[in-house]
Amino acid sequence: MLMESTTVGFDALNLAEPICRAVSGEKYDTPTPIQQQAIPHLLQGRDLLGCAQTGTGKTAAFALPILHRLSEKRQAPGSKGPRALILTPTRELASQISDSFRVYGKHLSLKQAVVYGGVSPKPQISALRRGVDILVATPGRLIDLYNQRCLRLDQIEIFVLDEADRMLDMGFLPDIKKIFAMTPDNRQSMMFSATLPDDILRLTKQFLNDPVKVSVNPPASTVDRIDQRVLFVDRENKGALLESVLQGDGIYRALVFSRTKHGANRIVKNLGKAKIKADSIHGNKSQAARMEALKQFRAGKVQVLVATDIASRGLDVEGITHVINYELPNEAESYVHRIGRTARAGATGVALSFCDAGEKGYLHNIERTINRLVTVVDDHPFHSASIAAKPKRGSAGGNTSGRKFSYGRNSNSSAKPGKNQNRKKYFSAKPGKKVRSRSPRSAASV
Ligand code: AMP
């Protein structure tokens, strides 16, 4: 799978032979841009600030040099504690990163463990007791285990803070600072973040030593590969619209975003009534239930996974054909993250956004951020002409009537409602279908 046009192959990176073998076993031909830029510096032991989000190949960008460095200076893992620590905001991401280390390190004898909350700590404690070289962790469980003296961090040689911006959004800053303080000063440190707001830059000053800065810019390229459409619909018709869309052709694996956990459960329940196989992942579910839902979705046994933003962060599932925003996020950045779950590693995908009367301002801000208009689909059975015609209120532009501001491209090119010939394949438009109504009150509490 080739992600971008590149000139340098993996051979040129001088990684240890067992690592190259594992990488070619994964059919990676060429390092992705973040891998090309980061790996040589990391192999030299430099600190690094990487501006990149998931989907760019950033896990291998830090995992391969970590495996290389640890295997070069082999030590028996023992009671001394891990030599590399990867801190990441969510359990799903922790387990994905751990899987990646297992794959890339399969021809090495390094040991690794993953620790996160929501599951019994006992197996995690046993794994730590047996000794690990590499530890992948979420902050809360790591601190718990540290406080219970189940692990020490004074042998850490390499520290990775992954998805730093999301960590800060989730309120992990105090935990991160505590964890940094538990590790030795002479460690090699890396920080990866999709965005670099001031608080992240402050953190880098505190914890990175003369870092190399590498940046790849996936949002634009990823966003460009995604066929983005908006469907104007009254809030009470969103459930029926979702059913109609999912019953259309070509939707093999859809990730649906709900703003809340209860909303996610309700969507799954309603889809179940329509005999559409769906499951959800969100913070109220046990870790085992989340993992099971993900497994079923990955295996194609469940067509639809309904997720909240936090639970979906960093999800890497191949072959997601559609991302559906049941509700538009109020932050444009979340929109970019959400739709990036499709179009992984160079693939293309479709993102459909259901926009009700109250969400037009969000749409406006999203369009400004991605610097393009989202194509309007107006021939679905629940199209609301009044919402389509409603002026948008954006935070930056005040009361704008329609699409007057400039998007940096000819607005006629992508925004003409109802002119796209391909749209039918995303829907089975059933004009006679009965609309199940929900009271606006209950819909508002989604
Ligand atoms: P990540 O950004 O680490 O979540 O990686 C996104 C996806 O890209 C994962 O499915 C990886 O297996 C895949 N990937 C990582 N590096 C490469 C590469 N050099 N060539 C092709 N695919 C890759």
Walk me through what this model shows.
This protein is an alpha/beta fold and 446 residues long. The protein has two domains: 214 residues, 3-Layer(aba) Sandwich (Rossmann fold); 211 residues, 3-Layer(aba) Sandwich (Rossmann fold). Helices cover 39% and strands 15% of the residues. It is built from 19 helices and 16 strands. It has a seven-stranded parallel beta sheet with strand order 3-4-2-5-6-1-7, sandwiched between helices. A seven-stranded parallel beta sheet has the order 10-11-9-12-13-8-14, with helices on both faces. A two-stranded antiparallel sheet has the order 15-16. It starts with 16 loop residues before the first helix and ends with a helix. The structure holds adenosine monophosphate. The site of adenosine monophosphate (AMP) has 17 residues, from helix 3.
Task: Please write out the topology.
Layout: H1 17-25, H2 33-43, E1 48-51, H3 58-72, E2 84-87, H4 91-104, E3 112-115, H5 122-130, E4 134-137, H6 139-147, E5 158-161, H7 164-169, H8 173-182, E6 188-193, H9 198-207, E7 212-215, H10 218-225, E8 226-232, H11 238-246, E9 254-257, H12 261-273, E10 278-281, H13 287-298, E11 304-307, H14 309-312, E12 322-325, H15 332-339, E13 349-355, H16 360-370, E14 375-376, H17 385-389, E15 392-394, E16 398-400, H18 412-415, H19 440-444
Parallel strand pairs: 1-6, 1-7, 2-4, 2-5, 3-4, 5-6, 8-13, 8-14, 9-11, 9-12, 10-11, 12-13
Antiparallel strand pairs: 15-16
Helix pairs in contact: 2-3, 3-4, 6-8, 15-16
This protein binds adenosine monophosphate.
